[in-house]
Amino acid sequence: MPLTLTRDAGVPLHLQLAEQFRAAVRDGRLQAGHRLPSTRDLALELAVSRSVAQAAYDQLHAEGWIAGRTGSGTYVADVVPLQPSVRQRRKPVPEESEALLTLRPGIPYIATEPDAGWRRAWREVSTQAPPRGYDNPAGLPALRAELAEHVGRVRGIACEPENLLITNGTTHGLRLLLSVTQQPGARIAIEDPGYLNAVRAVRDHGLEVVDIPVDADGLKVSALQDDLSAVYVTPSHQYPLGGRLPVARRNELIRWARRTGATLIEDDYDSEFRYDVAPLPALAQLDLDQVVHLGTLSKMLSPALRLGWLVASPAVVDRLAAYRAQSGDWPGWPMQAALLAMLRDGYLDQVVRRGRRLYADRRNYTCSVLAPYGRIIGQDAGLHITLLLPPTTNDRAVAAQARAAGVQVAPLSDYRRSTPGPPGLVIGYATPTDPDLHAALAILVDVLSRAVGNNRR
Ligand SMILES: Cc1ncc(COP(=O)(O)O)c(C=O)c1O
User: Fold this and answer.
1) Domains observed in the chain
2) Is the CB of 295 within 6 Å of ligand 1?
3) Whose CA is nearest to atom 13 of ligand 1?
4) How many angstroms is it from 119 CA to the middle of ligand 1?
5) What H or E segment, with its residue span, contains residue 208?
6) What does the pLDDT read at residue 455?
7) Single pTM value for the model
8) What is the dihedral of CA 74, 79, 81, 85, to 10 degrees?
9) Which of 88, 122, 382, 427 could cysteine-pair with 270, CB 3.0–4.6 Å?
């Protein structure tokens, strides 16, 4: 078997030698049981020192390619070569959506340049050494304390640090809760129309989704059956229709949960951004033994931060944290430390105040432009409005026409499951720049005037 060593190849001689033996076994030139030359003979033949041959054999032996070196010589081990895997190279798919203007809901306005508050927070993080071990799986103690104060002040939930668990956002918190607290076969109610990621999370856990209708005020509490083990609800701004669950219905929901023992999972979606009156306190304010509250940074700063919080009874928080201690699945220290700095600095409050001003203007503009084409609902809060279209309209076709004209927008039918209702478009006004919002709405108006006419309602 020819062996060639190159002295200036940048790879040590013993590794070159070992690789040539491996290649010979892989392609069948060396078979199991084949006897190899002694290190002395090999070294002589290749004009290298014996330590080079020895190091090559040591390496091959350690990896299992050769065996039985002492006494009876060195043999090729019984290694059945693997067929090389055929790697499927996927053709890069051009990011078509990048070229489109977006009116999809769910993402706030994110400026291209970071502002001073953001930079201050990260400077603060950069001056600290990382923790000297695993963090507390419930989250940084100082952040839990700061957030307890924050949700008390902003959402009216009287709570202690022991009630807080830091998550990677709403969906992460929901999935964790389902994993730890729900038994196989559990029936989980979700608003219909509602948040599709919540539906997916429940189904992924092998649990049953029960569709609960929604009206202008939000979840129809009277439709809840007593065998449900949890209800996923967006009381501050029903997603996507925008109703605000009134006090009487909130009380009814809490009474129902106390009677049946079901857990109420409150997605506090959009609560920060209300344009008419101050937000109602969170549902969790009424009973933390019955409600698990999910908050997120996704709407205030960016969904890419993957940071949120869960507020629940200390018993539930302890169970979730114990589970996480095993799974290792909790938010990394830097983002937690940055949020702590942002809260202490007042930056988060500042971002919300700034956002509310910006979004209020955009909402007014969006409503004024779209009012002639349908009935606008859910405009008092959040980062989107819903435009209800005449009953015979195919909203998916309208969304497809908008897409073809360069604008992404979500058809309301995509959010509906079994409860029928009028067609519509869910239109987010937060994400684009002002000029892009204007351009996107102009295109949408064009599409709508062809699809539904100008109804001047
Ligand atoms: C109803 C609702 N809840 C919560 C979220 C945010 O989820 P996350 O915190 O996992 O980013 C969204 C995002 O679009 C949403 O639409």
Assistant:
1) 13-76 (1.10.10.10), 98-106+350-451 (3.90.1150.10), 116-345 (3.40.640.10)
2) no
3) 106
4) 25
5) strand 208-215
6) 53
7) 0.89
8) -120
9) 382
